[in-house]
């Protein structure tokens, strides 16, 4: 975690948290751990925005679902879904960006594919078995070149948005441990109910 992130950690607002990053970066695992600390149910976008057998819902269907989620006062969302990122960032009080090197996300995605081969993970829509096709591999390999600049641009358009950028798994572990140590009970966690 960069030094500047430490400066603001005591004032984080966990009302509406979006965890984003490349596939394979560990968003789901991290968000589940954070959800346990916050005593909050995690919303997995991949579970809600995909149809069975990896059939993508129409943009309008996805937008309706996504808008319904982000209209709430409090949420903890795991998932990238660049097509809906702008709306999510407009509502988020905190973004945690797992900004890992390409090789880390790639090898984690490969290991996940081997581990869950022929199975359905709990964070994926019903009927979507684990896969790692050429499109998905290309997305991972090109993420830092194509998607990361879009994310950074979105951040630059929102000077008041609090973003914690974590560059590697060790930083992520330290950040999570800091949150566990800092916020001993849900009552310690800053959450606003206002939109």
Fold and architecture overview:
This protein is α/β, with parallel strands linked by helices. The protein is 47% helix and 11% strand. The chain contains eight helices and five strands. The protein has helices spanning 3-7, 27-38, 45-49, 59-70, 85-91, 102-115, 134-156, 169-182; strands at residues 16-21, 43-44, 75-78, 94-98, 163-166. It has a five-stranded parallel β-sheet with strand order 2-3-1-4-5, with helices on both faces. It starts with a helix and ends in a 13-residue tail after the last helix. The model is unreliable at 1-7 (pLDDT under 50).
List strands and helices in order, with pairings.
Elements (H helix, E strand, L loop, with lengths): L2 H5 L8 E6 L5 H12 L4 E2 H5 L9 H12 L4 E4 L6 H7 L2 E5 L3 H14 L18 H23 L6 E4 L2 H14 L13
Parallel strand pairs: 1-3, 1-4, 2-3, 4-5
Helix pairs in contact: 2-8, 6-7
Task: Offer a few descriptive terms.
195 residues; 5-stranded parallel sheet; disordered N terminus; alpha/beta; single chain
């Amino acid at each position: 975690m960069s030094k500047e992130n430490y400066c603001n950690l005591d004032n984080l607002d966990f009302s509406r948290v979006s965890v984003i990053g490349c596939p394979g970066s560990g968003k789901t695992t991290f968000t589940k751990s954070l959800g346990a600390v916050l005593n909050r149910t995690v919303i997995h976008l991949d579970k809600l925005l995909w149809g069975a057998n990896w059939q993508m819902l129409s943009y309008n269907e996805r937008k309706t679902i996504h808008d319904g989620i982000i209209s709430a006062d409090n949420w903890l969302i795991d998932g990238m879904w660049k097509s809906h990122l702008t709306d999510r960032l407009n509502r988020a009080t905190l973004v945690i960006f797992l900004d890992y090197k390409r090789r880390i996300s790639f090898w984690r995605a490969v290991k996940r594919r081997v581990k869950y081969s022929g199975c359905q993970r709990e964070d994926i829509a019903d009927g979507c078995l684990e896969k790692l096709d050429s499109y998905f591999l290309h997305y991972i390999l090109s993420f830092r070149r194509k998607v990361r600049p879009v994310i950074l641009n979105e951040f630059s358009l929102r000077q008041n948005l609090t973003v914690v950028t974590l560059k590697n798994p060790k930083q992520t572990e330290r950040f999570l441990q800091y949150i566990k140590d800092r916020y001993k009970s849900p009552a310690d966690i800053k959450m606003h109910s206002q939109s």
